[in-house]
Design brief:
mainly alpha; Rossmann fold; disordered C terminus
Length: about 170
């Protein structure tokens, strides 16, 4: 379905049958990868994590029937640029592809340059799958903001700048 749609629109499409073939696909210099999580021998999360660990920066959109929030978050944490659940409209997928490519031209040229690897705050995939609470997974939380100044107290420096601008 996807292959037919994009081929009819004039795009070059290369299909693969397993996650093991993804290295060949990325070496060929593709602009974007549409990856299903439910692959025959290896799940898409593991494939994506391996791709990112090897330094490939080619954009990846996960297309899957798994609509759990946990799966969506996991997919984005391991390096997906977007996550689309089935059933989907082909025009929506096309729009998401254009958006991801517009967001950052990290296509074939960038894919050959080793990246810094996975985000430092991302714990191993196996650990995240266990469903441990966020504070036990090594997930970074936003810093706590200082309490507001008491009424009548001297405003903080950033507040003075805001007051001067108004």
């Amino acid at each position: 379905m996807l292959e037919d749609y994009f081929t009819a629109r004039g795009d070059r499409v290369s299909g693969i049958d397993s996650g093991a073939e993804i290295e060949r696909l990325l070496s060929a210099g593709v602009d974007i990868v549409l990856l299903d999580i439910n692959l025959p021998k290896e799940d898409g999360f593991s494939v994506l994590q391996r791709v990112r660990m090897r330094g490939h920066a080619t954009p990846v959109i996960l297309l899957t029937s798994r609509s759990d929030q946990v799966d969506k978050v996991l997919g984005l944490e391991v390096g997906a640029d977007d996550y689309v659940t089935k059933p989907f409209d082909l025009r929506e997928v096309e729009a998401r592809i254009k958006t991801v490519l517009r967001r950052g031209a990290r296509g074939p040229a960038a894919a050959t340059t080793p990246a810094a690897g996975p985000p430092r705050h991302a714990p191993p995939l196996e650990e995240r799958r266990r469903g441990r609470p966020a504070h036990q997974r090594g997930v970074l939380h936003p810093p706590r903001l200082p309490a507001a100044a008491a009424p009548g107290a001297e405003p903080r420096r950033s507040h003075r700048r805001l007051q001067a601008a108004s």
